[in-house]
């Protein structure tokens, strides 16, 4: 292969292949977050989740001089919150080069892991905003967090009861946050505050009930589904769908075998008469949207 004539290019390709092989070896056995990870001296780990280009490696470079460097790529977590470090060389974008250079953590001055068991205590969504007037960590609704993290979890559908698996881990850490920051140089102080803050209160959730075989609507078989504060999060054929309150009410009542009129009456009781709309027409539209998403069919 021509690319292998350049050692730096070869190392970049090798790093990618090793990461993919490591992820494949753990598929279905651990939660695999596409995240940077840093560890406090007592072993508490913060995972900073984000897609490629969101700044995970840059965050690792700045935070790794203050905290133990866990990974700039993947944070693997067991159900009991045990974290498995992946201290790979950092993949650094070099201006003018078509591939990333691999630089050892020690060459960047990153700290070793603490002499303590590693345990996940925080998951945050990286969000750089150079114009923000209010940097900091802010709570994220459980369904919104799962929906946003879906693309950043390797082999999510292969976990047992995937949405419940993620929700149980979030339960133990209290909740997911969004870390809004202006520049990576500000991250150490922000993360100091996150490690010092008490854990947020966990958001209650329940498992969606089994589908009935009666009624005018048939709910499609799903891989997993949870209900949170009147909303629903559904995993079907590898796709996560979040339903708002009206959609969740319609879907859960279809699970129980309810008719369109029964669902309409329940919606009016829950949300009141819709302004300027016929409630049955509005609910019919909602049901049609659920059909379009492959979640319902007419019996």
Describe the structure.
- The protein is of the alpha+beta class and 299 residues long.
- It has 2 domains: 195 residues, 3-Layer(aba) Sandwich (Rossmann fold), CATH 3.40.50; 93 residues, Outer Surface Protein A, domain 3 (Alpha-Beta Complex), CATH 3.90.930.
- The protein is built from 8 helices and 17 strands.
- Strands 1, 2, 3, 4, 5, 8, 9, 10 and 11 form a 9-stranded mixed beta sheet that branches. The protein has a 4-stranded antiparallel beta sheet with strand order 12-14-15-16, sandwiched between helices.
- The protein is elongated, with a radius of gyration of 22 Å.
CATH class of the largest domain: Alpha Beta
Residue fraction in strands: 25-35%
- H/E element string? HEEHEEEEEEEHEHEHEEEEEHHHE
Question: Helix tally?
Answer: 8
How many independent structural domains?
2
- End-to-end Cα distance: 56 Å
- CATH architecture type of the largest domain: 3-Layer(aba) Sandwich
Instruction: Give the overall pLDDT as a whole number.
Output: 91
What is the percent of helical residues?
A: 25-40%
How many extended strands?
17
Low-confidence stretches: none
Biggest sheet architecture: 9 strands, mixed
């Amino acid at each position: 292969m021509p690319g292998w004539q350049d050692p730096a290019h070869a190392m970049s390709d090798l790093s990618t292949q090793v990461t993919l092989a490591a992820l494949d070896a753990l598929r279905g056995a651990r939660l695999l977050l596409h995240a940077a990870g840093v560890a406090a001296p007592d072993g508490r780990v913060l995972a900073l989740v984000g897609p490629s280009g969101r700044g995970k490696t840059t965050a690792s470079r700045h935070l790794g001089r203050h905290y133990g460097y866990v990974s700039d790529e993947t944070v693997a977590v067991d159900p009991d919150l045990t974290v498995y470090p992946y201290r790979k060389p950092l993949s650094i974008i070099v201006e003018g080069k078509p591939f990333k250079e691999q630089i050892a953590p020690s060459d960047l001055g990153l700290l070793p892991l603490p002499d303590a068991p590693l345990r996940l205590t925080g998951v945050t969504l990286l969000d750089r905003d150079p114009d923000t007037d209010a940097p900091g960590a802010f709570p994220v609704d459980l369904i919104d967090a799962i929906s946003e993290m879906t693309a950043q979890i390797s082999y999510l559908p292969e976990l047992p009861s995937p949405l419940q698996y993620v929700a149980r881990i979030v339960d133990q850490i209290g909740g997911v946050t969004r870390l809004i920051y202006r520049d990576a140089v500000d991250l150490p102080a922000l993360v100091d505050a996150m490690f010092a803050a008490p854990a947020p209160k966990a958001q209650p959730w329940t498992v969606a009930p089994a589908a009935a075989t009666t009624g005018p609507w048939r709910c499609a078989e799903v891989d997993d589904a949870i209900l949170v504060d009147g909303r629903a999060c559904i995993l079907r054929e590898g796709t996560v769908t979040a339903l708002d309150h009206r959609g969740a009410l319609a879907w859960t009542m279809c699970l129980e075998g309810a008719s369109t009129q029964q669902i309409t009456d329940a919606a009016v009781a829950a949300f009141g008469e819709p302004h300027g709309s016929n409630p049955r027409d509005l609910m019919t539209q909602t049901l049609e949207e659920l059909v379009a998403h492959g979640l319902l069919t007419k019996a």
